[in-house]
Amino acid sequence: MEEFRWYRLIGKYVYQYRRIAAAFILFVVIYAAVFSLYDLEVEAVLYATGLCVLAAAVMLTVGFVQYCRQRRSRLWLSRNIELEFDKLPEAGNLVEQDYQELLRALGQINAAHLTDWQKASQESIDYYTTWIHQIKTPIAVMRMTLQGEDTEEHRELLAQLFRIEQYVEMVLSYIRLGSSQTDFVFEECNLDNIIRQAIHKYAPLFVRSRIGLVYEPTEIKVLTDEKWLLFLLEQLLSNAVKYTREGKVTIAVSSDEILSVADTGIGIASEDLPRIFDKGFTGYHGREDKKATGLGLYLCKQTADKLGIDIKVHSEVGKGTSFFLNLHKERA
Hints:
- The protein is 61% helix and 11% strand.
- The protein has helices at 9-16, 18-37, 42-79, 94-146, 152-178, 191-209, 226-242, 283-289, 296-307, and strands spanning 187-190, 212-215, 221-224, 248-253, 258-263, 310-316, 320-326.
- The protein is elongated.
């Protein structure tokens, strides 16, 4: 909504009441012409005309002041419409009163639809949350069963089970990020501890894929939500392992609190880079893979935005991809 400027309203005020102004000028001309036909003194005609013009000027000034007040009131209401919808300015005429009745009717319809949508959304969140927690039980049982015997077949099944757990966690994070009650808790965290948790979780995949991991411990502390930053880092590591067939993944933290995750994988096509954070976008390599969902990097961007983290990417096809997270406290 534009900022209030009274001097910008003069032209709009005159234009709005242009017909009344034209009628007033016409009446003054008729009045002066008729009086002149009766051979009245010019001074008398001009005096009466001047009085009319003065009275009109006073009335227009008072009207303009009220016009500005109403404008200011509408601007304030527009900025607080969700809280003060019932406090519409008093209608100045029947037309304004009719429009306000229409607005109130639309407001009631919108409130009813919003209530229905919130109810349906909450039911959906409750259902999927319950399903996620229930599915974790058979996953845990299968993991314990497969870990009982160390065979190539069981190792392969454990790797696939790990992917299932990833997808389950992704669904839960997707639901939580879309909720208005997301449980973010910002505090000063040990960045090294968060990185080591992510590395420990994905260590079996690195070993199985025969991919090297390079990481130098850091003593930097960052202001963030530990759980969500860990989720963000896990998604980047998941992508790095998924698209790196040989070579290594390097995790580094610069002195100015820039966390980077770089791999020597297949890279991202230059034409795909502007859209990699879009929901559902898989890109050229994702279309080749057929299993890509296009949600991983989308969730990374959503999480980074909520944490106040600037996320950037640099990639070359055939050489690898690097993601950079600006964890500076001032951004958070």
